[in-house]
Amino acid sequence: MFQSFLVTLRTQLRTPSLLFWSVAFPVILATMFHGMFGDFGSFYNLRPLNAIVVADSNWTSAQQALVDALSSNDSSATDTAGSAPSTDESTDEATDEATDESSSTTVSALLNVTEVPTMADARRLLFDAGAGEELILAADADGTLSMTISDATFASINSTGESSDGGMAISVLDGILGMFNRRNVAIADIVAANPAALASPSFTALLAASPVGESLTRQVTLTNFQPDPVARYFYALLGMAALMTMSGAVVSVSRIQANFSALGMRRSLAPVSKIRQVAGGFLASWLVAAVSLLVGVAYVRYGCDVPIGGREWGAALAAVMATLTTTALGTLLGALPRASLAVKESLCSAVACLLSLFSGLYGSFAMELSDAIIRHAPLLALVNPAQQITNLFYDLLYYDSLVPFARTCGVLAVMAAVFVVLASLILRRTRHDHL
């Protein structure tokens, strides 16, 4: 068995096509992904907006406290907001809601403020191309805040999309202003319907509630690690890369079958049992596949800067478990008795590409398809090796506990056992009338 291991190992290391598909191809594809999605994460970062505030007679301390809170880099703005009961709660609640809606995107200062006394001055400054101002914040007679966006800002958002940093900042600010206005209207309606409410200590305490010392805009993370919108594409890529490594096992098993080549005839007559030859080839193929996938994982993590939740050791274990399953699947495909080696290699590539479709590799449509399968047909996702390999890295990134990761490793181990048993049964039952 050891001799079969060494022969298979040397043969695979000297096969350029095998090394290309196992090592070079994932690195090339990851480089392309990095080029396409490298700046995608910046779309989820808010940048401060250059805002003009019309501080006229309609502008009150409540609106000023809100603007101070959104334009401050420290907690002093919160203390200022606390002096305006009717504003602080609205800004805190509105900002929290906007933060939740922006999927853990956070920024300490949302506005760079320039104050002017009149609306005419604000419009003049907004239309000045050299000033760099993007919007106007003003209050009408009933205290409602409004936002006016410049034509240049509107055109920029239309060209880059709402997912750009400026577009997302505008959306967050619009949500904050909407919450502020709705809250003020609600308070006005309550006071109009029941003026005695102002004399209620509980009501005034509710208005005066202020999280003093906390930032009005805060990051909320519900997972072990901050989500990365690009990571799942690279994880799906690693799933396909693992499946591509099974071609080594396909070739290894095919070369011990007597009806495929003269080498297979000689090996079938050797004084070494077929099970030992298969075991040696399996271990060598697994070793080459594991090292190849580890190269891909290392490149994705450090070359493309894709996070794995600080659990790089888990990513190495994931590569070992993933290649165990794919090597077993390659052994099963290689054991097919009547198909030629070329057909088996083509089948290997077809299986890898097809299963990767359902794990979300091929763009947003494939991601939506993968999500739909997980929601509505979880059993299909469970038996898909590409999906389970992808889940290994999800489990490391998003879960505090290692239980989901261990469960996925168990699923892959069961798959590997099933593939090996089926391959053994096929090889044991294969007989040849003549060679």
From TrEMBL:
Q: Which domain of life is it from?
A: Bacteria
Q: Where is the composition biased (Polar residues)?
A: 73-85
Give any Gene Ontology cellular component.
membrane
Every copy of the ABC-2 type transporter transmembrane domain together lies at 17-424
Q: Where is the composition biased (Acidic residues)?
A: 89-100
Q: Does the keyword 4Fe-4S apply?
A: no
Q: What topology in the membrane does the UniProt record assign? A: Multi-pass membrane protein
Please list every transmembrane segment annotated in the UniProt record, as residue ranges.
Answer: 18-37, 186-213, 233-257, 278-301, 313-335, 347-365, 405-427
Question: Which InterPro entries does this one have?
Answer: ABC2_TM
Where in or outside the cell?
A: Membrane
Report keywords, A-Z: Membrane, Transmembrane, Transmembrane helix
**What is the recorded name of this protein?**
ABC transporter permease
